C-alpha cells in the first residue's frame, strides 16, 4: 500500500529536485542567451562605430589631400634647402603655400599710409585667404622680411622706388613692413606725400624710404596725368634728366616700367622738345627699347656701383582674356603656369638692355610667380575716378574690375621679401 501511493504521487507531480534542476537549466540558458545577445549587440555597435570612424578618417584624408593639392607644393626637394644666395637661388622656381596660422605684420587698418586704391579689406572685400599665401623656393630658403634688419641696413641711407602705380604699391608695402617696427610717435617717423616725390623717414635710423613718380622713366606728356588715354600719350624717348636729377645720391634705387607694357601696340614718340610739331608712331616694343636705353645710359653715366645698388623689377601683365581676377579667391596652383598676357617680346627687350649695361643691375624677376595670384588683385574693392566703386558699379564687373593693381597687404609684400633677400 505504501509503495502504490508513492508511485501515484510520482505520476501526479514531479519531485522538487527535478523542478529545481529544470528551473536552474532554464535560468542558465536565459543568462547564456542574454550574454550572447549582448555580445552580438556590442559587436554590431563596434562594427557600426568602426564604419563611422573609417568614414571620418576617409573624409579627413580627402580634406587633407584637397588642401595639399590646392596649395600644390608638389614633391618637396629631397635634399635640404640651402640658405638664400642671390647668385645660386632662382626666385622663379617655387610654389605658393597657404599658411593661415602666420601673423600678418600689418593690415590696411593698422598701417595709415596705404592709398584707398589698394586698401581692399578697408574697402569691403569679404574674404581674406589671399593674405596668407607664402612663396617658397624649391632649393633655397627665402628669408622672411625683417624690418629691424632692413632699417639697420638703411641707417643713414636713402632707398628710392622710381616708377608707376604698381611700384607705388610696392613702396607702400615696404613702408608698412618697416613701419611695423617703428614707434608710433611723431618723433620716431614722418611721412611727406606729393604728386611727384613722397618720403617716409625713420628718424631713429636717419633712413628714408622714397617714391618718385616717373611712370615711363623717360619724360612724357602724361607724367602727371597717367589717365590720359593711350592715343593721347606722347613719349620723349631720349629725354630723362628732368626726372633723373631727383635720383642722384640715393643708396638704393628700385625701378620698374610696368606702364610701358599696357600702352597698346604702338606708342607716339618725339625727339627734341614737346613743342616741336609732329611725332613718330612706333611699335610699343621698339619705343620701349629706345626709352630703356636712355635710362640705361643715364645709369651707366651717373651711378657709382660701389655706392649705389640698382634693382629693376620685371613686370606682370595678365589682363588679357577678360576680367580674370573678378571673384577669384584662390591662386592658380599649376606649377610653371605662364599667363597668356605676358609679353615675351617686351621681356626680351628688358633683359637685352639690362644685360648690356656696365653698371650691375639686379633683376627682381616677379613675373611668373605673380601671375599665379589672380586672387590678390584689387578687383572691385578699389576706387575709380577718385571715388570708391559703388554697389551698382560692382554689378558691372566687366567695366569696373581692376585686374592691374594689387591689394596691400598682399602680393607686393612678397616682392619686398625678394628685395630684402637680395639686400
Automatic annotation (TrEMBL):
GO cellular component assignments: Golgi membrane
- An annotated Gene Ontology molecular function: xylan O-acetyltransferase activity
Give the membrane topology, semicolon-separated if more than one.
Answer: Single-pass type II membrane protein
Q: Which InterPro entries match?
A: TBL, TBL_C, TBL_N
User: Which ranges does the record mark as transmembrane?
Assistant: none
Location in the cell reads: Golgi apparatus membrane
Q: Where is the Trichome birefringence-like C-terminal domain positioned along the sequence?
A: 142-421
Keyword tags: Disulfide bond, Glycoprotein, Golgi apparatus, Membrane, Signal-anchor, Transferase, Transmembrane, Transmembrane helix
Q: Which Pfam families match?
A: PC-Esterase, PMR5N
Q: Where is the Trichome birefringence-like N-terminal domain?
A: 88-140
PANTHER family xref list: PROTEIN TRICHOME BIREFRINGENCE-LIKE 3, PROTEIN TRICHOME BIREFRINGENCE-LIKE 9-RELATED
Family assignment from sequence similarity:
Belongs to the PC-esterase family. TBL subfamily.
This chain's protein is named Uncharacterized protein
Q: What is the lineage of its organism?
A: Eukaryota, Viridiplantae, Streptophyta, Embryophyta, Tracheophyta
